[in-house]
Model the fold of this input.
Amino acid sequence: MTTQTNARFLRLALRLDAVATGAVGLLLLIGGTFLAGLLGLPAGLLHGAGAGLVVFAAAVACLGLRRRLSRVGAREVVVVNALWVLASVVVAVTVPMTGLGLAFVLLQAGAVAVFAELQVAGLRRLA
Done:
């Protein structure tokens, strides 16, 4: 594979992460009050997480859209994603919530873990 093809894989992983993260962030930001009842999580937690996700999604999108990919930036995204997965597991274990809330927290953590793994694979292809 060429370096350009390898870069395309990482770029796609970053862009997909940005789109999914932004969508979940907007959902939590806009619908946090409604979702709080369904998920059994505090609306403030959902709104705060949503705002953070929107900002993170914008940063990841900027990174994925840059003409020249930043390996350091991509590694930082992987680290933040790994920390998000860890934090999600901590929330799932320590914060009381509904069954739907638990499923939501664990499913989004799983999706973030997949994005992190795709990004690690993309970084390996660049090496």
Residues 3-39 form the longest helix (37 residues). The mean pLDDT is 95. The CA atoms of residues 29 and 50 lie 5 Å apart. The chain has one domain: 3-126.
